[in-house]
Amino acid sequence: MKNLSILGATGSIGTSALDIVRMHPDLFRVRALTAANNLPLLCRQIAEFTPEVVAVLDADKARELAGMLTGPCRPDIMFGEIGYARAAAWKTTDMVLLAMVGAAGLKPALAAIEAQKDIALANKETLVMAGDIVMARAREKKVSILPVDSEHSAIFQCIMGKRNKDVKQVFLTASGGPFRNTPKEAFEKITREDALNHPNWSMGEKISIDSATLMNKGLELIEAVHLFGICHEHIQVLIHPQSIVHSMVGFTDGAVMAQMGVPDMKQAIGFALSFPERLDLGMAFPDFVQLQSLTFHAPDFQRFPSLEFARQACIRKGTLPAVMNAANEVAVQAFLDRRMGFSDIFRLISLTMDCHTCIDNPDLSGIIEADHWARTKAESLI
Ligand code: NAD
Ligand code: MG
User: Fold this and answer.
1) Does residue 201 have its Cβ closer than 6 Å to ligand 1?
2) CB 120 within 8 A of CB 149
3) Within the chain, what is the greatest distance between any pair of CA atoms?
């Protein structure tokens, strides 16, 4: 029996994880649940999964939640940064699924590591911001960080049992998002609704926009550098519109291993939660006859400069990745709020990165300071 803290329980990853728990009640027990909002759903989850503790965004939400609970399960209700950190480090928990969105994941990740809880990591922003600090601390504390992102799960599955020195190249696949074939001139007219309409995956709003700008792949490039200790120069991004090959690894002798599956996050989530076991998730295999062909091509950096921003952040390191991440979060939110257009997302990230005076080898407070600086700067630039 594995005891879980699920952070971001009401989101796309969180609800898929709870579907897996529901399928395997003999294997998993939920000890802590957290969410920022959607209290009605959180209430139903509390009734069904009976956690000992929950955490929500702030004191108002905590009071509201307390008033909404009618069933026999009455978990302790905590809130804010401290509440999320305590849920991550909860005493009866063995593993934390970090599935909240954005920079809010960093402190709970570190709290989980300090308490020696293994992490199933969906929140890529944590490694983009502070990958060096998080990975070093996880090694010191002997904490496993298991990838939930489908590409990183694929890479992990391909290198399992292989020797590090034999790995030469990673091929990071991307669907290309809804604007794969949209000419640059048409970008100005892209609406919130167009951008949220991902062709292959059903995901939260922020990552859906990140997929549309390809910033998701930029974030994933940095995530892969930290998770697998591979130089960004050995990671090639490939547009693969069918989203069947979740990523590939090339070895020194020219062999390439791919991990495939239908585009459904349950496989990657289930593998991280149950590693090294594989669960029966009732998943269908891809219908290869129906598919007929799997295609790959190079990304268009002219239309999607996000990948260049991420490469720049990989090269410069220091506080620049955190600044890129924060500027992106502000830009995505402003686009979702209809305060600026789709192409402005690229402009805002680029301008904010250009204005930043990068600090080398920052500690945690240096990273958080850079994150705050970038948010203020990006807001002022809008
Ligand atoms: P989502 O928007 O569907 O859910 C986010 C969850 O986090 C919700 O429970 C929400 O209440 C909570 N949350 C939001 N803001 C918060 C804050 N400031 N503090 C604490 N909690 C907060 O997002 P998602 O699509 O499930 O993605 C979650 C994370 O997983 C992201 O980092 C994303 O990049 C990553 N990821 C998602 C997918 C996917 O298919 N959805 C795939 C790979 C990686
Ligand atoms: Mg991914």
Assistant:
1) yes
2) no
3) 62
Please state, in angstroms and rounded to a whole number, the distance separating the CA atoms of residues 30 and 65. 18
Q: What token pair was written down for 179? A: 């604007």
Q: How confident is the model at residue 202 (pLDDT cuts 50, 70, 90)?
A: confident
Of 103, 10, 81, 101, whose CA–CA distance to 51 is shortest? 10
Listing DSSP states for 220-239 in one string gives: HHHHHHHHHT--GGGEEEEE
315-359 pLDDT, tens per residue?
A: 999 999 999 999 999 999 999 999 999 999 999 999 999 999 999
Residues in the chain: 382
CA–CA distances in Å: residue 65 to residues 16, 53, 78, 111: 22, 12, 10, 24
- Closest ligand, as measured to the CA of 123: 1
Structure tokens at 23: 């399928």
- Give the three-class secondary structure for 118: strand
**What is residue 175's predicted lDDT score, i.e. its pLDDT?**
96
Using an 8 Å Cβ cutoff, are 251 and 155 in contact?
A: no
- If one residue of 64, 79, 101 were mutated to test the ligand 1 pocket, choosing by the most ligand atoms within 8 A of its CB, it would be 101
Among residues 127, 170, 163, the alpha carbon closest in space to that of 146 is found at 127
pLDDT of residue 336: 97
| Extended strands (E) in the chain | 2-7, 28-34, 53-56, 76-79, 95-98, 118-121, 145-147, 167-174, 235-239, 245-251, 256-260
User: What pTM did the predictor assign?
Assistant: 0.97
d(CA 24, CA 49) in angstroms, rounded, equals 12
Compute the distance between CA of residue 247 and CA of residue 256 in angstroms, rounded to an integer: 10
Domains of the chain (ranges plus CATH)? Answer: 2-147 (3.40.50.720), 152-263+284-305 (no CATH), 317-382 (1.10.1740.10)
> What percent of the chain shows pLDDT beyond 90?
98
Which ligand is closest to the CA of 39, given by its number?
A: 1
* Ligand 1 in reach of 124 Cβ (< 6 A): yes
Q: What is the pLDDT of residues 54-92, one digit of tens each?
A: 999 999 999 999 999 998 999 999 999 999 999 999 999
Ligand 1: which residue has its CA nearest to atom 40? 203
| 303, 349, 351 from 300: Cα distances, Å | 6, 18, 20
